[in-house]
Amino acid sequence: MSSVEKYIKENAKSFEEQLFNFLRIPSVSTDSKHKGDVKKAAQFLIDQLNEIGLDKVTLHETEGHPIITAEKCPHEDRPTVLIYGHYDVQPSDPDELWETPPFEPTVKDGRVYARGSSDDKGQSFTHVKAIEAYMKTGTDLPVNVKFILEGEEEIGSPNLIPFIKANKELLKCDMVLISDTAMFGEDQPSITYGLRGLAYMEVHVTGPNRDLHSGVFGGAVENPANALAEIIAKLKDEDGVIQIPGFYDDVEPMTAEMREAYKQLPFDEKGYKKDLNLTALHGEKGYGTLERASARPSLDVNGLWSGYQGEGAKTVLPAKAGAKISMRLVPDQEPQKIAELFSDYVNSIAPDTVTVEVEEHHGGYPVVIDLDFYGLKAAAKAFEEVYNKDVLFAREGGSIPIVADFKKVLGVNSILMGFGLTKDALHSPNESFSLKDFHRGIQTSAKFFELLPEYSE
Amino acid sequence: MSSVEKYIKENAKSFEEQLFNFLRIPSVSTDSKHKGDVKKAAQFLIDQLNEIGLDKVTLHETEGHPIITAEKCPHEDRPTVLIYGHYDVQPSDPDELWETPPFEPTVKDGRVYARGSSDDKGQSFTHVKAIEAYMKTGTDLPVNVKFILEGEEEIGSPNLIPFIKANKELLKCDMVLISDTAMFGEDQPSITYGLRGLAYMEVHVTGPNRDLHSGVFGGAVENPANALAEIIAKLKDEDGVIQIPGFYDDVEPMTAEMREAYKQLPFDEKGYKKDLNLTALHGEKGYGTLERASARPSLDVNGLWSGYQGEGAKTVLPAKAGAKISMRLVPDQEPQKIAELFSDYVNSIAPDTVTVEVEEHHGGYPVVIDLDFYGLKAAAKAFEEVYNKDVLFAREGGSIPIVADFKKVLGVNSILMGFGLTKDALHSPNESFSLKDFHRGIQTSAKFFELLPEYSE
Question: Which residues form the Peptidase M20 dimerisation domain (chains A, B) (predicted)?
Fold first, then answer.
């Protein structure tokens, strides 16, 4: 056992206590009455980073909550890893559904229950402790490390991208390391190597200038709700294929290697259906469920409204109908281009008997990390040494916009080294994090830094 | 001028004052705190009917508000006319939008402003005054008349049908006379000879057992909102033809005479579109706008809901979606049969990836009075003599369920002799009624009774 490993083992209890102190700070970024608490959490990290001996530890004020940077770069000729994490948390409400107080960490069955335990205080803190193990044991840090820790992830990171753009030199690196995702299952280390992008649209259909009596006008005037339904029905065919012209033009076809990686994933379709109480699944023809949910683009109605939604019957021919419709994107689809194709198509199929307006909400780029990237290989090896099990490579269906932004602005890949589990209840009452994975996370991080130089050669 | 006409002319002012007293009673049937007022309005009519010398004037208590009957049947060999009206009114709220108090009748530019002025106190009172003119002048009443006046029309007449069924002998008649509709335009007498029926359905589509993250599950799980839109889109084709198998089987085709009657109606399609702020109308191919709105069946979404309807973007794949969908029916479509056909069709096109439930709200039978019916002809002639203008025969797109019920239970046609105008603002603030039409209504009613015997021969 190396002195780093020994240090991590011997300080396990102390690391937990420090994490609990971190979790006691209710750093809810969306709630202005917690502004002081968010600052307090930032100060907690500043103290940590100073204490372990990092250089250039800096708290950068923004228009919102602060951004923290720090670094230790002992080797000009070795890779630089930029560690990203966030110290803000989601609100705890509904508080009455928590079995223990959200900001009083409570350990049950080897899990710590507290808001932020998994997302992302517990996960991001692993890297701080891994680097501490090198610094405090006088072990040469095998790579260069930099930190960027923000306090606004739960509110959409409004100040992060401008900061990155303005500080490219400070943040210059060879890869980003992020622990803010889940493993494929308990004791099953996994690396997320792909995330879908997003184009989120809103469609408004307007017919007559007022709600009409459906008896008096029904049959003579186009009904905006019927028209909207017809528009939505034309967005996909019966095989689940999206009908927007040009929609698939930039979709990178799945390679044999990718499809093989999907086959390796231990997926229980029966259990998946049972969990959702569905007798049948549905998606794009020719692809498996996991592929449809992460490697292929999708289109979903997220919201729908028109006319009378109350109890009983109201004979109204509504003046308006609306829908929120979003598309998950895969490389190399561009959110802006997809939004335009959607808008053009919807306008082209809209009848001239109604007025259709299409607006765009926020979007995000899809991202896939090449499985040949040496950082991924080193991370996989580190996981395998600690967990004693082969890593699964998986793509996720959701979006983490910052990953695409790091690629765009800094030109680097991100390694999504998640230590969470889907049962962690992120954003929900009774969020928790496995303490076993907290410790294995620290070990995996330390191992990753140790292994990375040889993979980079 | 006959003594009846003279009496009506000489008592014009007194009739107005009596109507205003009737309008001062806030007989809001839906509001239990006005229960005493509804009773007071009933008593007002009882006093009127007794005062003019009708027989068997009776107030029948029900589980709700009372029903009044009365009659004068001097001629065994002549037709009997059952006059239907209602003395209850809609609530007056929002009161702040009334320019004058809703229960203090105010005359402006020849119109009386008050809740119930047109719907239906003012209109139904015309017949009371017409009969009074015969009785008070000692003129032989040319026909037999009966009254049925209810206090629950605005709450769906829950006690009326059972009462009619239980009192068929008391209500035995050759036709029903109802003044509770609007004329086609100012100074343009019109008779509504058809009303559409109604089948009102609600469709619930359920997918997964909970709202899902559209990033994680989008593409793999059928979206209930998309599925609902696809179901709705299949209810009609691009020509506006309803696709439910068997839907048109019982539709009575329009005769050449009917279509000719439609052509006679002074319809300004340009003005109609302008009023609704529409550049184009839409409906079943092969029919004109008025035909589509009243002589042909229709299908409309009345309400639609699913997922997130708030501001901004929420990436939810909703667990549920729902719609209210109603169909207007024409003879000889039966609401119950149509409801079943709808339900069968929706179930047959629903994908097996979701659960679809269809429920039925209230329905109503369509009705059309044969234009050859002598009562209609007598009513038309009476209108023409008083208004000095040819009557228009029109069908309405809405429903007055009681008309179909009179046909079903008593086996008789109804004559819809409306004296209102669309600008009367029924159910809205500042309801009003033209006093000129109030007086012409009394004259038309009296003339109708005078002319009816010769048309019945």
Answer: 193-352
Least confident of A253-267, A275-289, B29-43, B269-283: A253-267
Asked, for residue B84, whether it belongs to a domain, the answer is yes
How big is the A-B interface in CB pairs under 8 Å? 283
A191 and A203 in a single domain? The answer is: no
Given A234, A281, A306, which is nearest B221 (Cβ)? Answer: A281
Closest CA to B399 of B304, B331, B323, B343: B331
Q: Tell me, what's the pLDDT at B426?
A: 84
Catalytic residue among A132, A153, A405, A431: A153
What is the structure's pLDDT at B314?
A: 83
Contacts of B456 (CB under 8 A, 6+ apart): B78, B79, B174, B374, B378
Closest residue, chain A, to B326 (C-alpha): A315
Is A363's pLDDT higher than 90? Answer: no
Nearest to A114 by CA among A234, A240, A20, A220: A20
Task: For residue range A404-429, list pLDDT tens digits in order.
Answer: 999 999 999 999 999 999 889 888 88
Report whether A408 contacts A166 (CB < 8 A): no
Residue pair B118/B112 in contact (Cβ under 8 Å)? The answer is no
On whether residue A274 sits in a domain, the answer given is no
Cα–Cα distance, A218 to A425 (Å, whole number): 48
Provide the domain limits for residue B214.
197-251+297-364
**B146 with B227, same domain?**
no
Q: Does B273 touch chain A (CB under 8 A)?
A: no
- For chain A, what's the residue count? 457
Whether B135 and B209 map to the same domain: the answer is no
Cα radius of gyration (chain A): 25
- Per-residue pLDDT of A222-251, as tens digits, reads 999 999 999 999 999 999 999 999 999 999
